[in-house]
Amino acid sequence: MSDLKRDGRSSGRNSLLEMVMNCLGTIREWLEDATVTDIMINRPDDVWVQQGGKKFCSGAKISAAQIEAAITLLASNSGIQVSNESADAIVSTKLPGFRVEATLPPVAVDGPTIAFRRNNMVVKAMSDWVEQGALPQEVADVLADTVRRRLGVAIVGGTGSGKTTFANTLLGCFPPDDRIITIEQVPELVVKSPNNVRLQINPQLKVTAKRLLESVLRQNPDRIVLGEARGAEANDLLQAANTGHEGPLVTLHANNGAEGLNRFEDMVAQSADAPDSREGIQARIASAFQVMVFMKLVGDDRIVAEVVKVDGFDRQSKEYKTTLIYRSSRYETFDVPMLGGDQGELARAA
Question: Is pLDDT above 60 for 12?
């Protein structure tokens, strides 16, 4: 593609963002504020904002007509005409700096809705997390060494817990001569290695994460990074990791480390090529991923709440063999299940 075409497409997207902001004039200030991560229009005259980890009602006044006009513009970005009588009453799209989800009545019961989520392009050094008290230096050193040694790492946590930000930190620890290929729904990962390829899932073109993973295996990657595992592609990632492509990095939504493993199992099971038994899936996960990092939003702070080493899978007991490397004292007050296993030296010292 020529630079002229690229520039034209980028300019068009920026113009679209400007037109959307003009439609939603009363919330422009929030869209332009880089400290705001989410703007959520629940219905006319009901706009919520998330800033610094806290959600609050903005008090902004906005009409149904304004919201619907903005949704019509957003739909044009996806090449569709919105209708409240079809599946196109739901619009999923991207704008410069944002991913956007919108719904129209009757799908949206109380009026049209739009949710803006700001893309997370923040890159923190490991030392930044340590200085902010998100994890101790000893654990930071262990994690940096983990990715340098090409061990598989899964970062789990809830929405807004810092998974992508921490993934970018770990990406910064990869050896500089690694050929890294990333797969994402929305481009948020920042790869410092000069030898890299960034791939994006595209539902409109029917390009899925699974299809991209199949392609990646033929592109000679040293490291494969999946921005977020959501379904059957998790099995393709495991197959890649267990057939010579060591050291994968993946993020997934889960409320704790134990749930992260369970969710991963469920996603693998969705694949037609998955092992027949649950134990087979668990053994494959334990072989591919040696470290689980659980991120947690505590107050306004995003912390590394747990680091668990996965030592294997015991088919007799049907349990993962794990070692707790670290658990934050700020996390101990939460009544949540914890992965079993022995405690490592850092865990006892934390």
Answer: no
Nearest Cα to 181, choosing from 213, 149, 147? 213
* 52 and 113 both lie in a single domain: yes
* Distance separating alpha carbons of residues 260 and 306, to the nearest angstrom: 12
Alpha helices per DSSP H over 54-157: 64-77, 126-131, 137-148
Are 106 and 174 members of one domain?
no
Task: Give long-range contacts, CB 8 A cutoff, 24+ apart: 141-148.
Answer: 142/307, 142/325, 142/326, 142/346, 143/170, 143/173, 143/291, 143/293, 143/307, 144/170, 144/173, 146/290, 146/291, 147/173, 147/174, 147/247, 147/249, 148/173, 148/174, 148/175
Do 93 and 137 fall into the same domain? no
Q: Where are the beta strands (DSSP E) in 104-168?
A: 113-118, 153-157
Parent domain of 255? 126-349
**Phi (first) and psi of residue 121, to 5 degrees:** -110, 20
- pLDDT score, position 84: 58
| Tens digit of each residue's pLDDT (9 = 90 or more) over 240-279 | 998 889 999 999 999 887 788 999 999 999 999 899 899 9
Query: What is the Cα 142 distance to its own chain's centre?
Result: 22
Residues 11 and 102 in one domain: yes
Split into its structural domains, the chain has a count of: 2
Asked if the model's pLDDT at residue 6 lies above 60, the reply is: no
pLDDT digits (tens, 9 = 90+) for 159-218: 889 999 999 999 999 999 999 999 998 888 999 899 999 999 987 788 999 999 999 999
